[in-house]
Amino acid sequence: MEDNVQEFCPLDGSGWSFAAIPPKNARDKIMSAASHLFCNHGFAATGIDTILTRAGTAKATLYHHFKSKEELIAAVLEAEGETWRGWFFGRLSEVKGPARNRILAVFDILEDWFADPGFYGCPFINAVAEFDTGNDAVRKAADLHKQHLLTWLKAQAMEMKAPDVTETARSIAVLFDGAIVAAQHARDPSFARTAKAMAECYLDQQRG
Amino acid sequence: MEDNVQEFCPLDGSGWSFAAIPPKNARDKIMSAASHLFCNHGFAATGIDTILTRAGTAKATLYHHFKSKEELIAAVLEAEGETWRGWFFGRLSEVKGPARNRILAVFDILEDWFADPGFYGCPFINAVAEFDTGNDAVRKAADLHKQHLLTWLKAQAMEMKAPDVTETARSIAVLFDGAIVAAQHARDPSFARTAKAMAECYLDQQRG
DNA sequence: AAAACTATAGACAGAACGGTCTTGTTTTTT
DNA sequence: AAAAAACAAGACCGTTCTGTCTATAGTTTT
């Protein structure tokens, strides 16, 4: 259990992970440590004490800021999602051209994400996979995250005058999830390009 | 924590889950109980005692058959994979017509799987999501499982005389994973059809 | 300067964890 | 009928878990 992994992920100087910003106060230190450990070793498998050791904070401090481990998990997921979306949609907003370009750029950005040495798959997919039944807070956070993406995709599909906006968004979302899982399992970022090729194919057909 | 969920999944009288076959000996009872609990509540979150209670067996019996919890997890994954593949490829072998039909039928079968009330996503995807770093046995089992599918897909792509057999197989695999995750998260089996439509689109393009 | 806040350090509790072991019963094999 | 294997029931061990509590110290606010 060495853990001297390089986890600062520049990603062109705009690392997506909020673990990239060196935390100052104890709360952020806890969040950062928890985020890393949860993603690396799982939520249940990561103990409070391990988080505290890594964060270099006291136990009372953790329980001052979060009333339980569950709440910490929820907070970490929420923060991780927000930071990720900020990075992702920020990158997307730089893309020039019509909506089609923007949709396809999704997969280029995904590839950058996959190539990050600190990529362990989507935290939300992983969280739902681990809890599934039971933990509603986790599912809700995941739903919200996915909804953000879906809303954005629908807007693009509308701009493209796609015949079925919802179905187009769903289709790209399937490619999105598929690329994440495939890249995570095979540790191969190029699955983003495979997904992109299918997206191109699909959008071409939409044009009729 | 009620858990009086209907878990016998006929699926046209040929339920995929080996939990569907009422187990006789203690070993199978343990495997069946463990499988259900692992999928529902996660691997780490499921304790040995919980498995024993559900299985109605004694602790010594479990440790007579499996030398550790890790080994039990590995055994469950292996059995689950084998049974699933038996069901899946069995269904596929019934499909008439050219290879293209068989590839598209994959998504029809997936939809049946998704519609099963006992569907919690792919056990392998979930397992990798939970362990990721560390547990090599889990990753190996997942790799093997995926390899089975990939090999089958390549054979179909070859029969179809696809220009790039490997890339075709990878593409369908992305749709496969994407459909599973999307259906699991949204609890909506129709994502299989969304994936199927994209597969059709992609295979049509392959023909030139 | 006083009060309020934020933090550290670590003992502690109670439960749950994985795993071992013993004792005795049932089932199967020979 | 005898021997061997599989099983039940559950006490038990050492560890780890989440979460609480006390005591102390630095920092910010009023």
UniProtKB/TrEMBL annotation, chains A, B:
This is Transcriptional regulator, TetR family. Transmembrane segments: none annotated. The keyword Cell wall biogenesis/degradation does not apply. Coiled coil: none annotated. Keywords: DNA-binding, Transcription, Transcription regulation. PANTHER family: HTH-TYPE TRANSCRIPTIONAL REGULATOR LMRA (PTHR47506:SF3), TRANSCRIPTIONAL REGULATORY PROTEIN (PTHR47506). It holds the Pfam family TetR_N. Residues 47-66 bind DNA. Residues 24-84 form the HTH tetR-type domain. The keyword Transcription regulation applies.
